[in-house]
């Protein structure tokens, strides 16, 4: 599964994207896996209320299932316009 | 519907003329242009706009689709830049066309509200004293509830 990070999430994790093997059933499970990896992930995912998530380029929430998902992106609230 | 996500500048006048010329039977063209604001004090050295290629285009098309469903529009144009911008640079524009002005105005207002918090762009402001990500505003999220 491809995991993408944008804005300050990318800066904290230190990568724009990576491919990982995971059996996480939901976005929340995936976040737990990532948090457990290294301090920089724990720092990036410290406060989920400050984060948004997209699964296969559709905005969703942290309860969303990951079955069949190819791409998960984490980022702060968007500031377009 | 035309959606463009680009790093290069655009010419609002030329874009507006082209958009208007492509319409038939539309009595109203509304355009909005967003410009990079300078910062008080230190001043803005530059703004970096990051986006999510792929999702950005889909999200903008979905927002334009919603506008076309809700209002009777002859056309919708959205141009949004990414990359390095400076104070006074144009960041983005929307144009809407309708038979009478109410639909074009409302649709443009709707597009702007949704672009603010539903299109995957992030802005970082650089000044002499450092760099900061622009935080989203509660009022931008609240603005969506009026639609």
TrEMBL record, chain A:
It comes from the Bacteria. Pfam families: ThiS. InterPro entries: Beta-grasp_dom_sf (IPR012675), MOCS2A (IPR044672), Mopterin_synth/thiamin_S_b (IPR016155), ThiS/MoaD-like (IPR003749). CDD domains: Ubl_MoaD. GO terms for biological process: Mo-molybdopterin cofactor biosynthetic process. Keywords: Nucleotide-binding. One of its GO terms (molecular function) is nucleotide binding. One of its GO terms (cellular component) is molybdopterin adenylyltransferase complex. Belongs to the MoaD family. This is Molybdopterin synthase sulfur carrier subunit. It comes from Thalassovita taeanensis. The lineage of its organism: Bacteria, Pseudomonadati, Pseudomonadota, Alphaproteobacteria, Rhodobacterales.
UniProtKB/TrEMBL annotation, chain B:
It comes from the Bacteria. Pathway: Cofactor biosynthesis; molybdopterin biosynthesis. It catalyses: 2 [molybdopterin-synthase sulfur-carrier protein]-C-terminal-Gly-aminoethanethioate + cyclic pyranopterin phosphate + H2O = molybdopterin + 2 [molybdopterin-synthase sulfur-carrier protein]-C-terminal Gly-Gly + 2 H(+). One of its GO terms (biological process) is Mo-molybdopterin cofactor biosynthetic process. InterPro entries: MoaE_sf, Mopterin_biosynth_MoaE. Keywords: Molybdenum cofactor biosynthesis. One of its GO terms (molecular function) is molybdopterin synthase activity. The keyword Lyase does not apply. Its EC number is 2.8.1.12. The keyword Phosphoprotein does not apply. Gene3D superfamilies: Molybdopterin biosynthesis MoaE subunit. It is an enzyme of class 2 (transferase). Pfam families: MoaE (PF02391). Converts molybdopterin precursor Z into molybdopterin. This requires the incorporation of two sulfur atoms into precursor Z to generate a dithiolene group. The sulfur is provided by MoaD. Belongs to the MoaE family. Heterotetramer of 2 MoaD subunits and 2 MoaE subunits. Also stable as homodimer. The enzyme changes between these two forms during catalysis. This is Molybdopterin synthase catalytic subunit. It comes from Thalassovita taeanensis. The lineage of its organism: Bacteria, Pseudomonadati, Pseudomonadota, Alphaproteobacteria, Rhodobacterales.
